[in-house]
Amino acid sequence: MAVRRDNVAKVKTVxxxxxxxxxxxxxxxxxPDCNEWNTFQEEIKDRQKSKPISRFVESKVxxxxxxxxxxxxxxxxxxQELDRVLGGGIVKGSLVLVGGEPxxxxxxxxxxxxNKLGNKNLKVLYIAGEESPKQIxxxxxxxxxxxxxxxxxPETNWDIIxxxxxxxxxxxxIVDSIQTVYTPTITSTPxxxxxxxxxxxxxxNIAKEQGIATFIxxxxxxxxxIAGPKILEHMVDTVLYLEGEKFHSYRVLxxxxxxxxxxxxxxxxxxxxxxxxEVEDPSLFLLxxxxxxxxxxxxxxxxxxxxxxxxxxxxxxxxxIFGMPRRATMGIDYxxxxxxxxxxxxxxxxxxxxxxxxxxxxxxxxxxxxxxxxGIISSIASSFRDTPIRxxxxxxxxxxxxxxxxxxxxxxxxxxxxxxxxxxxAIIPNTNKKDLKNENQLNIxxxxxxxxxxxxxxILGG
Length: 462
What we know:
By secondary structure, the protein is of the alpha/beta class. The protein folds into three domains: 12-45; 71-279, Rossmann fold; 285-460, Ribosomal Protein S5, domain 2 (2-Layer Sandwich), CATH 3.30.230.10. It has helices at 80-86, 106-118, 133-142, 158-168, 193-210, 231-235, 282-287, 334-348, 373-385, 411-420, 430-435, 452-460; strands at 12-17, 23-24, 40-45, 74-75, 90-91, 95-100, 124-128, 150-153, 172-176, 213-218, 238-243, 250-258, 266-272, 275-278, 297-304, 307-319, 327-330, 355-361, 393-395, 398-399, 405-406, 425-429, 445-449. A nine-stranded mixed sheet has the order 8-7-9-10-6-11-12-13-14, with helices on both faces. It has a four-stranded mixed sheet with strand order 15-16-18-17. Strand 13 (266-272) and strand 14 form a beta hairpin. Helix 8 crosses helix 9 (373-385). The model is unreliable at 1-8 and 47-57 (pLDDT under 50).
């Protein structure tokens, strides 16, 4: 007699890439999507379809012109640098992802922000998935933080976290980190693609429905990107990266995605005994300790969002001991430096084919702004000729492959920042000089140039 198997439940499994979230029904050694090896893990795929959950309390069709905007949705954190990066403060109901390397200061930044928000009579619930309450208490005492509105919940099970969330009813929710939280409805292990995606989806719904501003901490991979499927960054409203070297005191908070503000803004912090301290004058901070009359050093004014900053570019040109000259960069795009070296060789006649070239932005800051081209060329030429550049000169300009120097944006902001720090001479594109309206009020001598040759003749004397 044949046995009917129509009603027998079948458990389906899929293999999920832990690097990018790609799914397949068969195991593979190499992911066809991200090309990573040995990243597939088997996970059970639930066939039950859940009821769709709305991201908003009331879902209805309405005209855009009829949508009302609440001007009180933003909350200032008390940190000007963080507020700048967020676009003017925390937006009610927003979901913010904070990433960075281990030990860079993510938890320190968030516990400091939680303390400031708590002192504004806002309830903050801190979900600690990696630390015990005693560890957090020790950090708070070391940073001299004190507030009665900060609640700690050391838990990773979402069902228990949900109970604590309903009990406290916080205004701000911090989850540290998203890779440690899991929901029992998903059979995969904590930190897997399915768990991270599901928990983030739940947090997104809660943030939108209840108006709770939520911060989640994300681990980063070896390549520096946030661990988890790329859809994780698409689900959140804002993605922040805390950058810097663990052995340097500075930290840069950068927005790579922001639905409520610009992604060009950065926040500058300095790691000290009292945690992350805001750097109000980044230019002075980055130029501290600059050597006097050293060849290969030049100052370039750059723009990060709406903030002008002066950075120092250093180059070291030395004869190569191998047949192939070496080029290395830190903080500057490698390919851009190669192009500038080619311009120097072809248009100015510098013989760099038998020299190693090392170019660096001092302080570890990273920038890809084209206005730094003239600074790169000036720095390389100075080191090659072993001729120092005057310490009161700044240079700026985008350099084309024919050697021409092109216009840069926000030139007046750059010049005012340079004049404030005592620089006397500015080498800028001639097209920018012609457009200056208040040159006499800038307290800095402006010299316009058309090509690289003219710039080097002024800077290095020929």
